[in-house]
């Protein structure tokens, strides 16, 4: 996880040095996952006036809270914004979220471990609400 965050920060610095225009890059996180002790961080890149691309990584916080489940995931997401400005109004997205998991289940007095890789693809639709009229 530490290596992934380091690579993400270096990538952010390189791209930030290349494009210095306002709101060309956004750092994002999912607070619901943080509340579930699954820290995550992502970077959004503006591609043009209608689209953005997101790269995110996350994992469970360790064996303290999830002693029977360990999950590491990434996410690649393309969003098409229906307004002429990214991060405003409605969007339609296509995402790919690869994950590696290891879970131990207790079933009929036996411990069963499931380990594997998941690679879901999906569509999403949403709306971006401004937090403040000055932003």
Helix and strand arrangement:
Layout: H1 2-18, E1 25-28, H2 31-35, E2 40-46, E3 51-59, E4 69-81, E5 89-96, E6 99-107, E7 110-118, E8 121-128
Antiparallel strand pairs: 1-2, 2-3, 3-4, 4-5, 4-6, 5-8, 6-7
The helix content is: 10-25%
Mean pLDDT: 81
What ranges have pLDDT less than 50 throughout 5 or more consecutive residues? none
- Taken as a percent bin, the fraction of beta residues is over 45%
Number of helices: 2
Strands, count: 8
| Cα gyration radius (Å) | 18 Å
Structural class: alpha+beta
The arrangement of helices and strands along the chain is HEHEEEEEEE
Q: Largest beta sheet, briefly? A: 8 strands, antiparallel
Report how far the terminal alpha carbons are from each other: 32 Å
Q: What is the overall silhouette?
A: elongated
Summary, kept brief:
The chain has 135 residues and is an alpha+beta fold. The protein has helices at 2-18, 31-35; strands at 25-28, 40-46, 51-59, 69-81, 89-96, 99-107, 110-118, 121-128.
């Amino acid at each position: 996880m530490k290596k992934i965050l380091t690579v993400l920060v270096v990538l952010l610095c390189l791209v930030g040095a290349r494009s210095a225009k306002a709101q060309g890059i956004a750092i994002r996180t999912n607070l619901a996952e943080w509340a579930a002790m699954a820290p995550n961080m992502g970077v959004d890149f503006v591609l043009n006036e209608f689209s953005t691309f997101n790269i995110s990584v996350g994992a469970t916080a360790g064996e303290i809270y999830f002693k029977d489940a360990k999950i590491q995931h990434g996410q690649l997401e393309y969003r098409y914004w229906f307004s002429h400005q990214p991060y405003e109004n409605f969007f339609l997205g296509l995402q790919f979220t690869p994950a590696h998991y290891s879970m131990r289940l207790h079933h009929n007095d036996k411990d069963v471990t499931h380990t594997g890789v998941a690679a879901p693809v999906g569509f999403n639709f949403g709306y971006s609400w401004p937090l403040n009229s000055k932003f």
